[in-house]
Amino acid sequence: MPPTPLGPVEEELAKARAAYRNRGRWGEDDVLGTLNFVDDAIRAHAASLVRRGRCFSLAASTRGLPPRSDGGRDRAVAEPRPSTRWSTAVTGAERLRDAFTGRGVLLDVGRAFGDAHGELPDGFPVLEEHLRDTAEAQGATSSVRRGDIVLVRTGRLGRVRRLGEWGGYADGDAPGLSFTTLGWLHRTEIAAVATDTWGVEVRPDEFAGPAGSPLHRIAVPDMGLPLGGMWDLEALAEDCAADGVHEFLLVAAPLPVSGAADVPVNPIAVK
Fold it and tell me: Exposure winner among 144, 202, 220, 257, fewest CB in 10 A?
């Protein structure tokens, strides 16, 4: 799929910042950003979604990957890997320790629009229409509501694990959210969004020149929307496809590291 044509990056950023800015929406001392959309009633409803008690850790594991050699020497060392994380900017992670509990909903865009493995090609921009069409195809349990934590599966993590090709996972081309989904992310009033890719947004980006993670530059500091990267959605996606239920209780508290804006997490989905 060709990139969505966009204008000059700074012009587009300025327009998005004006349209989707949430700063001051919950007061000058706010520390939660879009996590304000999650209230006690939403958490109670999320708890009621548990039927089987089946748990899925969504933290990515590097188990089974071969070790690399250390500069040609005879010993092997572990390849450093990125961790499943939240990126936030409203406040330090220590003030969000109990904020990431609510209704999770999986939008398996890879299964809906990908290849036989349920994987989107690198560089595929996930547009609003893909998110909407995926939710509609998956059925009523996929309706996106205010305060939801939305998980978008592209199949990218599954592919690199399946092929053992981790080299470009952190810095190569990847499917991901289009910059143009900012309107949907804002309008739906979701609490957070996470994907199975390293950087959440599509790479290369959709601008003619260097843009420097344009979706992050609006979503995190201006919308106050936490972005989750490198979430392992494979087992959860298989279960959701099998029983047709794509909603669940999600507990995804970050480590309470003082002042941290990019922090590891072991998310747990319970169905």
Answer: 257
pLDDT tens string 108-152: 999 999 999 999 999 999 999 999 999 999 999 999 999 999 999
Can you tell me the distance from the alpha carbon of 197 to that of 178, in angstroms, rounded to the nearest whole number?
Answer: 13
φ, ψ at 68 (rounded to 5°):
-100, 160
Distances (CA, A) of 146 to 5, 92, 102, 250: 29, 24, 11, 15
CA 79 to chain CA centroid, Å, is: 24
The alpha carbons of the chain give a radius of gyration, in whole angstroms, of: 18
- Domain boundaries, given as residue ranges, for the chain: 9-270
* pLDDT at 81 (0 to 100): 54
First-to-last C-alpha distance (Å) of the chain: 34
Residue 220 carries which DSSP code? I
Quick count: other Cβ atoms within 10 Å of Cβ 69? 11
**DSSP class of 221:** I
CB 217 within 8 A of CB 89: no
Q: Which two tokens stand for residue 26?
A: 């919950």
- Lookup: tokens for 15: 């327009």
CATH architecture of 9-270: 3-Layer(bba) Sandwich (3.50)
